Structure formats: structure tokens, C-alpha cells
Amino acid sequence: VDNVSVKVKEGELVTLLGPSGCGKTTTLRMIAGFEIPTSGKIFIDGKEVSMIPPNQRPTTMVFQNYALFPHMTVFENISYGLKIHKESAQNIKEKTEKIINLVDLEGLSKRSPAHLSGGQQQRVSLARSLIMEPKVLLLDEPLSNLDAKLRISTRLEIRKLQQRIGITSVYVTHDQEEAMTLSDRVVIMNEGKIQQIGTPQEIYAYPNNYFVADFIGNANFLTGKVHKILTSKEVEIEVKGYIFKIALHNLSFKEGDKILLLVRPEAVDLKSKIPQSITG
User: Fold this and answer.
1) Is 195 helix (H, G, I), strand (E, B) or coil?
2) Can the keyword Transcription regulation be found in this entry's annotation (predicted)?
3) Is the same domain home to 151 and 230?
4) Average pLDDT across the chain, whole number
């Protein structure tokens, strides 16, 4: 990754989104402590953790492959971290039962992972992370092994749970719909660099560059030039001899500049021809 800088607010869910090899998982692994940055620093809750090993950081990670112990029950998998930290048997029982209820796994505590559905296994993995009460929850493409229908319902469950607990979360995915549905903010990455940070609405409506515009959603591009600057937020553009008046989110052009006009499919209305009228 190259000069990546992101500040995640307390209680926020931020998603790192981009194509394969863009650096999103490497960034997540650096936050977790599985990768050491060659330059720069990582802070969690105001404290630098750049050189602190993973087991001493206030983070837990939900992995893509769940990483459940096959020889342990649901209860034993979820409570494993508490046992490692040598908590009392009573505390382990109370905390584990509470988190089992929280992720809707009641009645399954004695089952082995082999007797659970993919969605249930994912909830066990999530519960095992949450029971440690981390300051930051890290999720590395946690839904990629689920079928399409289950992915939709599970991501909604994750979002509701995250909002209910109010836990700060960093989520990694290459699935645009997943990112736009789940996130408070999205970080678009490509070739190790951040292309844009913003809310899903900002990313979709006001892309920073061609990559973001083309990567998110469906896009039609028209080449043209700036015909006239009307106001600080309104210009006339010329596309193939036609003049259009458009509003700009951020005016950074001057008259005569070449432009690329992005038109989303839903922004186009098809109407039958109306005599003696002007549209556009």
C-alpha cells in the first residue's frame, strides 16, 4: 500500500472496497498486526500499536474461512478466547450465553461446526470475536463463502448487530453492493492507493475520478468540453454539438477544458416525442 491514511470514528463501520490486489486486505492485516508497516503509524483509541503483536492489540478479526475448531462445540469455540485469558468459569458461562443470545444461536451451543449451516458458522465466528469486547472489530470478506441469498440476510444481521453494540468496525470486501449497504463510509482503493473516502451516497453521486466512477455501479461516459462557466456551481458543457447545463458538486474546471460526463442509467428518462417542446 502507498500512503494510506484513514481515520475511523468511534462506533463507525468503514469498508475497504476495491478489486483484487488493491491493498485492502493488506491494510486490514496491518491494523490487526499480522503485517508490519514499513513506514507510517497505526493508532487505536489514541495509542500507537504499530509494533504491538496481534494478541496484545484491542482488535479481533472475523476471517473469510470462519477458522472454527472442528472438535469443539459452538459454546467452546465462542468461549475459547476467554479461556486463554484465564477468566473464571462463571464469567465464561455468563458472557458466552449472553453473546449466543445476541447472535441468535440459542439451542445450538452443544453442536459442532460440522452440524451448522454456513450462516450459523459465520455467526459463531462473529460471536467469538465479539465476546473479547474489542475496541475495533475487523472483518475480512466474511460473507464470501455464503450463497447469494444467505449473503444478503447475513450482511443485514451483521449491520444490525454492529449498530446495536456500537462497535467500531473495519470491513473488507470486493462486493460493491455489500459495501454500499453496510457502511457508514467507504474507502475505495486501487493499486495500493486510496482513490476516495466518503459515504455510499457521496461515492456514487460524486466520484473523485474515472476509476471510482467506472468501478461503482453502471456508468455511461460521454466526452465533451466546458462551454461556459455560469456560476460557482453551474456550467454549460458541449457534447457532440449539444449544449447542456449541469450543476457541479465541486467546480474545478475552466472554459475550454475537456471533460468526461458520467451519466447513470437511472438519471435518464425516456419519453415519447412531445410537439413544439424543448427538453434537456
Assistant:
1) strand
2) no
3) no
4) 93
Residue 266 has pLDDT above 50, yes or no: yes
Which structural domain range is residue 45 located in?
Answer: 13-205
Measured in whole angstroms, the distance separating CA 155 from the mean position of its chain's CA atoms is: 11
Q: Which long-range contacts (CB under 8 A, 24 or more apart) does 263-266 make?
A: 263/219, 263/220, 263/221, 263/222, 264/217, 264/218, 264/219, 264/220, 265/218, 265/220
Starting at the edge strand found earlier in the chain, the sheet holding 185-190 runs 59-62, 136-140, 168-173, 13-17, 185-190, 193-198
* Set of cell numbers at residue 113: 461446526
Residue 183, C-alpha cell as written in the block: 457502511
- Whether residues 236 and 143 share a domain: the answer is no
Rounded Cα–Cα distance for residues 184 and 179 (Å):
9
So what's the pLDDT on residue 148? Answer: 87
Residue 274: is its pLDDT beyond 70?
Answer: no
Q: What was the pLDDT predicted at 267?
A: 83
17, 212 contact by CB (below 8 A) = no
Amino acid identity, position 212: V
pLDDT of amino acid 275: 59
The number of domains in the chain is 2
Contact 185, 230 (CB under 8 A): no
Domain final residue, candidates 182, 205, 228? 205
Query: CA nearest 170: which of 66, 64, 60?
Result: 60
One domain, residues 127 and 223: no
Indicate whether 148 and 190 sit together in one domain.
yes
* Burial degree of 147 (CB within 10 A; 0-12, 13-18, 19+): exposed
- pLDDT, residue 64, reads 87
